[in-house]
Amino acid sequence: MKEDGKNNYNIFKPSPNSSGIEQLTLENSIRKALREEEFVLYYQPQIDTLTGNIIGTEALVRWNHPTLGLVPPAKFIPIAEETGLIVPLGEWVLRTACIQNQIWKEKGYPPMSVSVNLSSRQFSKQNLVKTITEILHETHIDPQYLELEITESMTMNVEVAIEVLGRLKELGIQICIDDFGTGYSNLYYLKLFSIDRLKIDQSFVRDIMTDSNDADIVATIIAMAHNLGIDVIAEGVETKEQLDFLRSQNCHEVQGFYYHRPLPAEQIEQLLMKTME
Length: 277
Ligand code: C2E
Ligand code: CA
Ligand code: CA
Ligand code: CA
Fold this sequence. Notes:
Blueprint: H1 8-12, H2 20-35, E1 39-48, E2 53-65, E3 69-71, H3 77-83, H4 86-106, E4 113-117, H5 120-124, H6 128-139, E5 146-151, H7 158-171, E6 174-180, H8 187-192, E7 197-200, H9 202-206, H10 212-228, E8 231-235, H11 240-248, E9 253-255, E10 263-264, H12 265-276
Parallel strand pairs: 2-4, 4-5, 5-6, 6-7, 7-8, 8-9
Antiparallel strand pairs: 1-2, 1-9, 1-10, 2-3
């Protein structure tokens, strides 16, 4: 990354005591980026290891910055959350992901779901159900192919969560708990919230082969999910050994660099074309 006259390098440098001015600069750049459509979605395939098929993708946002190039979400999502800009950004992500998924469907590729990350700021917004209802109507996506990823660490009021999740389920969309195992999991909520899928956090998957505690945790999460009738997917799968372990524990849905990195839509389409040959 180069430094330019506008000090763009500095505004992305995370520093614990970053000044109010830097925050403001970044906030204004995000606002401008939304207006000028500088955000772009990458999609990471989710694979059914029993068939080798792509069963879905996770939409992951990047900022295609005019001078800095592709900026990863870790550099701007936290400020977007702090400032509330995650609400319009998140709505753009939801809409764009649904439009893209529907384009793939209409081109005749086998049905795939699209998973979208949700931040608690969006969740607590009363408008979430309304926004999603509108997006479903606009894009004609079959709701069963839209999955929302929430995390255990999302701070939300339990009554509000039950109500909102209940209304989202009524719409027919899927709910997944992301980064499962890293927060305070109240197992009771898995049933109460009618969760469809758990995504085992990549920190456990990373050390499966070297840390027997992590291997035990992963095996336990998979068994528990199966007992509760909840689907389970593992993320961050990078090696054949990790994959083999997961398969031996009956986890057959995976996502990770071993198969594919997050890719621009055009490259996903090339993959889909290959599978149709
Ligand atoms: P996440 O939801 O846990 O997403 C998975 C992250 O792991 C992605 O990083 C992905 O590129 C990376 N990853 C995938 N496979 C592997 C692997 O095999 N090994 C390793 N080491 N990493 C892998 P990314 O795209 O940089 O996203 C980081 C985080 O930013 C996401 O973590 C999510 O919390 C947040 N994020 C991304 N897009 C959005 C969005 O549209 N809205 C919100 N609210 N958050 C988002
Ligand atoms: Ca995620
Ligand atoms: Ca995750
Ligand atoms: Ca994560």
